[in-house]
Amino acid sequence: HDEDSSRALSRIAHILDDVTSMRQLENDEIETVRLLWEHFEDQHSKFAIWRPLVWKHGFTAPDLPDGGVTANTSELASLANSRLLTERDDKSVHVNDSRDSEKATRAVAELRQLLEQAPILVDPGQVWQTYCLARCTRASKSEAQLDSDDMRRLIEYCSSLGRLAGRRFLMQIEVDLGTAPDLFPRRHTALIVTYAKLGLLEHARRLYKKVCGSGSSSYDDGDKDSAYVDWCMCQALFSASHHKEGRVIFDNLVRADQAAPHMYYFLIREYVLMQNVEQAFALFDDMCHRAIPLNNRTINMLAVACALDKNVSRATERLATVVACMRSWRLSPDMNFFVGLLKGYDRSSQHTMFDGLAAQLRARNSSTSLDLDKIIMQNAAKRGDTELTM
Questions:
Q1: How far apart are the C-alpha atoms of 203 and 225, rounded to whole Å?
Q2: Distance between the two ends of the chain, CA-based, in angstroms?
Q3: Separation of alpha carbons 272 and 341, rounded Å
């Protein structure tokens, strides 16, 4: 009964996320969701996400497994109820027609404006319908055409749609980009990561296997891009809490001497968030052994790891090692480093250590640090110190 389609769809997606985190949907439940989606489409003409589309005039789309969107003879005129398409007697859209070309060009500009806004402020149905029209520029002589940056931002936007709508949108984009690979050469990596963000690990795995099976010839830079695909799958697995499987891929990158500093940072951060201090420092030791440069982000995360360790002597020894390594790279502890220590003490409930360091930092720094004030206030709220939180 909710007349706000976007809000209703968001609520449905939230419920589905809760359910699918515990079990898979039954066939009758999937059918119910599909009917609900069609109801919103018919009642409000908002989100035609269930209607398959294909590139026009010479583009043929490959089939996708697992109920994916496939190529067929559907015309863009099936979206005639959209506010973006004018009524026509002819059921096909002739993209070579000058008026259609102008309309597609305007759609590209509108799509770019939509993608510049915060996702929460944008109607998914409007993005979908605008994309449906903007994609016609590939087959027309329009001056403005979709480019790789447009597709990258569109894929990123899909990660905010929720599992159900995001899956349908992404699979359509996957079909479209499969017919026009030059439009976005690194489409596979972007899709793998976004599928994982939506909790669709099976689709990330499917696409990864497809890319691995095609070999490095699919990429302009050969082995370099192959390693990038591996890294994106590693991130996808860690995001889905499949840490052992992701670590196998990362270790293969290390053995091939293709692991970069930002990859170490990502894994160290993941282990710190899991409070797996031993694995975080094992990666730090490997960085030192391989002389991989440290950056401030990695160091600050290691500060959190040091403070998480309740064994004071071991934590002190590790902290000294981190500081010594910093200095070897001509870096020095800054406020973010000390805030990282406070975060670790806060998470491990080492209140004495937290209070001592916080007092020293406040006494030493006359200028206000928002991050310092924030962690102190959070710690006070956690401990029920109403005097500090007021």
A1: 20
A2: 42
A3: 12
Enter the pTM of the model: 0.65
**34-43, 141-150, 157-166, 346-355: range with lowest mean pLDDT:** 34-43
Please report which confidence band the pLDDT of residue 153 belongs to, taking 50, 70 and 90 as the band edges.
very high
Asked if 8 and 36 count as a contact pair (C-beta separation under 8 A), the reply is: no
Task: Tell me: pLDDT of 210 over 70.
Answer: yes
Residue 38: pLDDT band by 50, 70, 90 thresholds? low
Q: Are the beta carbons of 334 and 296 closer than 8 angstroms?
A: yes
Residue 306: closest CA among 341, 336, 274: 341
Say which residue, 185 or 204, is predicted with more confidence: 204
Kindly give the interhelix angle for 148-158 and 163-179, rounded to the nearest 10 degrees. Answer: 160
pLDDT score of 346 more than 70: yes
Of 311, 185, 196, 325, the closest CA to residue 249 belongs to 196
Structure tokens at 360: 């020293």
Q: Give me the helix-helix angle, 187-197 and 148-158, nearest 10°.
A: 10
Higher-confidence residue: 229 or 97? Answer: 229
Contact call for residues 334 and 303 (beta carbons, < 8 A): no
CA 193/CA 244 separation, integer angstroms: 18
Mean pLDDT of 323-342: 90
Among 4-13, 44-53, 190-199, 284-293, which stretch is predicted with the lowest mean pLDDT? 44-53
Residues 6 or more apart whose Cβ sits within 8 Å of residue 368:
none
Give pairs for 236-242: CB < 8 Å, separation 24+. 236/192, 236/193, 236/195, 236/196, 236/201, 236/204, 236/208, 237/196, 237/201, 238/266, 238/267, 238/270, 239/193, 239/196, 239/197, 240/196, 240/199, 240/201, 240/204, 242/201
Q: Of 122, 50, 112, 117, whose CA–CA distance to 79 is shortest?
A: 50
**In this structure, are residues 192 and 170 in contact, taking their beta carbons and an 8 Å threshold?**
no
Comparing C-alpha atoms, which of 317, 326, 311 is closest to residue 301? 326
Residue 62: closest CA among 217, 228, 210, 212: 210
Sequence letter at residue 149: D
